[in-house]
Structures are given as C-alpha cells and as structure tokens.
Amino acid sequence: MKVIVVGGGPAGMMAAIASAKNGNEVKLIEKNSSLGKKILITGKGRCNITSSVDMEDFIKNIPGNGRFLYSSFQNFTNKDIINLIQANGIKVKEERGNRIFPITDDAKDVLNCFIKELKKYKNIEIKTGKRVNKIIVKDNVAKGIETDQKEKIFADKIILATGGKSYSATGSTGDGYNMAEKLGHTIQKIRGSLVPLTGDKELCQSLQGLSLRNVKIEFKDKEKDKKIYEDFGELLFTHFGVSGPTILSGSAHLLRYKEIDRLLKENKVKLIIDLKPALSTEELDKRILRDFESYKNKEFKNSLEKLLPKKMIEIIVKLSKINPCKKVNEITKEERTNLINILKKFEVNIDGFRPVEEAIVTAGGISTKEINPKTMESKIISGLFFAGEIIDVDAYTGGFNLQIAYSTGYTAGM
After folding, report:
1. Both 146 and 161 in a single domain?
2. Which of 35, 107, 189, 405 could be 47's S-S partner, Cβ–Cβ 3.0 to 4.6 Å?
3. pTM of the model
4. String of b and e for 127-152 (b: at least 16 CB within 10 Å)?
5. Between residues 249 and 155, the one the model is more confident about
C-alpha cells in the first residue's frame, strides 16, 4: 500500500515509521528543508521527550479533549518512545515534575534518533522542501496530494500531520487546517495554549526580566470572586506581562474559562502572587520583625533586601504606603499587617493572551468528533488520517504534548 505523510514533525515522523513498519511504501513530505524543526526548540532546546506518569494520568493532564486519546495512548506509550530513543543510542533521565529528557540535554540528539529510525526502513522516501497545497479527493476518498508546484502524487492513504499554528517560524502556519476545512472538516477556534499573558504594563515593565521561584499563583475571576486556577513554581515578568511555567499552565485553564474574552476585556481577571508561600502570616510577621531588628536604625526603603529581590523593593514600598524614609523601629503593627498582605497577595491585572504564534502549543483544530479515535481516520473522507497538533487536543507542559504527537502519529501510521 502507498502512504503519503504530510508534515515531518514528531507526529509525521512517527506516522511514517509506524506505517513503514507495517510494510507500506511511505513518502514523508516536509515543506522545510529539514525534518523536526519544532523538536529542536522544545524544552528550551533540551526536548522534554515525555512524562513518566502512568498513561492513565496523561489524560488528566490534557484539558483539551483528553479522552479522545485513550486508544492512541494504549497503542504507543511513554515507555515505547523511551525505548525508541534508547535503541538509537541516547539514554534518558528524569527530572522534577516527572519530565523525561535526553541525558545530553540536547534536542538535536532526540531528532537524530528519529532520523536514524526513519533510515532503518528502505520503504520510506523523504522529500523535504516540498509544500503540499491540497488533498486530492474523489468520491469522498483521499487519492493523493498536490504540491504548490502543481505536482500530483497519488497514494492509497494520506496522513495529515502539519502541526498547529504555534511557533510559525518552524513551519507550523496552519496549512493543514485550510486543507481539512476545504474537505468539509470543522475547525475548532484556533488559540494559543501554554502562552504568556499580557497585563499591568507599567508594573510588569518595571519588573521585566525578574524571575520568581517557589511562588504560589492564583488566577481569579473578579466578577464572581471565583478562583480559576492555582499553581506553585516559577514566574517571569516581561515587557508585556507575565510568563514562566506556572503562567503557561494557567493560560490553558484561562482560555477554557467561561466568557474569558469578555472578562479580560473588562479588566475582571487578576493574578494573585503569594511571594512567601512557605510562611504563614504570623511566621512572615516574625520574619519581618527579625529583619527590622537587625536594621533598626535604617529607613524602611533600605530594610527589605533580605526579604525581596532588589527589583521588587521600590514597588512593594510604594504599595505599602509606608513612608520610605520612616525608621523601621517606628513602623506600626497596622503598617506591618498591610505590608504582609501585599507580600501574600501581590496583584497583577491580566488583560489578554499573547498571539498564538508565541504559544508552545495550539488549542483548537480539527474537531475530534470527525475523527475515529481508534485509527485517526477522518469520518468524512475515507483514507485520510490526522496526527498531532492539527487535531483539537492539547495538554499542559511536561512532555504531554509531544506524547500526543507520537501516539496519534503511531496510531495513524499503523
């Protein structure tokens, strides 16, 4: 059987490997000059290959249509991808949060494992630098593809694995959505997930570049006084707002929250940061009193350097409304209580998401209702299969999105 795989990312490469393993004659077509560009930038260039959690727990980490992936995850597990990587000469290691990385900390080594695996099969032909413009369909059956050079290539089955719209510089420009839509598929709204957030421009610009570790964050709907999401970990202030692991995970929740676009527009979403989550208010008060004791002849503005990063001091002093020149031994209990409240509930107003092109992964895509979850075949066009980010599935950070790519690619290929 002749199979064409469109897209040479992790899902496409895995689909080609699985299909070739099945004895098919496979053409893997990629519009970039080389395969796997997006793999090279995952995990900040280190490639967070997968997660070590049980496959049952993967679905809990996929807010976007996780149950649809049940069969795929049975077909190709986290152990399977680890075995494939190790069989091609790269050992892996586990880091905090169940994240699996190559022992070399280099995404290029993971990509090379895929390329070595592809080369094992003489029945795979790789064509790079070719852009596919449309799927050729006759009587609701996929028959082949047409390139932008009007070249037609025919096959028995087509697997579309062109990625989403995040990181468009890697070639994910949404081409696959257009092709699928022209064939009658529904495309759920395309949005960035695991994406930085915008807000409080003046405040965030003054803190730009500051990374806070071990902080607790909470997103709140001010209209309903309701918690949307909470997390613990790292946060980064940027020139436009906030980023970092906790913010990216939070964005996946925010975009699914009812009426989020209206709430953001009306300035009704806030981020609350607990700068000292390990300390209760009483413990924090004792800590501040100890600092004040060691700085008893100093002015308030010069008494917080043990407690806070330098960049934050001026802002916290201003928010506390305590006279910056007041001697610390003159500060009242009421003023201290107000200071503690600011440290435990540092607020940033959130007003939007950064563009989808800056997102780690795309939310939205081809409706899962129109795809057979056991095979990844289209329910609309016979012989047309989908894999990876083009499908309306997305997960949190931690290797889950790459595992979706491998598992759906493998299922489509098989």
Report:
1. yes
2. 107
3. 0.88
4. eeebebebbebeeeebbbbebeeeee
5. 155
